Amino acid sequence: MLSGEYEGSEKITHGYNALESEDKQINVGLDAVGSEGLVVYGKPLPGNENGIGTFPAAVEKVSELLGGSRTFVTDRIFATFENLWGLQQAKHHFVCPLSRKLIPKGWIEGIAESEFQVSSYSSQHDPKNVYRIAESAITLKPSTKVSAPDLEVRALVVHSERKAKDDREGREKALKKIEKRLEEIAGYLNRRRYAHGEYAKEQIEAALKPPFGRYIGYELAGKDGELTLCWWREEDALKERDKQDGKYVVVTDMKEKPAEEVFSLHKEQHVVESRHRNMKTDLVLRPIWLQNDKRVEALLYLYVIAVMIYSCIEVMYRRATGIRWTGRKVLDSFGDYCAHKISLSGEGEAWLLEEPSAQQKDLLDALGIGLPSETLAGV
Fold first, then answer.
1. Do residues 227 and 200 make contact, with C-beta atoms less than 8 angstroms apart?
2. With bands split at pLDDT 50, 70 and 90, how would you rate the model's confidence at 191?
3. d(C-alpha 95, C-alpha 92), whole Å
4. Neighbour count for residue 192 (Cβ, 10 Å)
5. N- or C-end of the chain: fewer Cβ atoms within 10 A?
């Protein structure tokens, strides 16, 4: 977030928070490779850019940097026909969850429960959660933006017990909120504006807003001043909705790779998201006080370089030791180390260096970095 007018700025704009905040924002796109999340590319983006339009350029840049055929693991916002088709044409592969908008109505419910097999995947953050997977295929239709044939992709229908529980609880909470509002409306009937059927109906329809309002039916009866209201849950529709609880679809064009491996790749998508968190928390990106577009953009490029170095430190240490320390923990281990550069009048400069602790020496050795007395010599 940035505070200020930034009039005429093409990059510092109101984003998706526009209705909730007067502040403007600028985004940063990051690309990371491998399960360790080594950042290889980053770029400031306009505050109102969701990243979909910049995806092809990012793919081209990563291809230029790394070469060869790559597997792109993304979130659902990038899983458009155009992007997936573009990856195939560039001889790359993809693994990504599919937006509900792209899934034909009733398709998920048509997958029989008997087709689901328990996955061996175990989440580090939620080891008790059980995943089940059913394999199928789904055909994606091109939009009017691209001239291309239908794209048939391999689809993994994933069921998560934790997500199913959250879905049920979230829906029940939403339904109770709607019913509470209907009770209020029923209590207001035949008084002031609520004595008019047209106004009462407007309030009822407003309460029955998507996505959960369609699961409640109602009847508003009587003439103005003598109105009655009753409502009920649409149990048949709710039973059909129950079949979707906890389920989502992951698509890929890799037909030979075992489903377990594809699902594991999908679950690694959080790594690049963690790099965004590293920028905001460990590297303290926010707040930004600069008021000039060019300076803001330059600062963000410096932060991209910083998160690249941060991820390198983390990856190098983990590879060398097998210990899953975060980059922050490695850096914090040097928090009490001091090095002083002294300017001597007429005699040049000299370093006054502390002796690193045993742990600090081990860390430097694991990172392939020499002792300060070696690396700072002549600097």
1. yes
2. very high
3. 11
4. 8
5. C
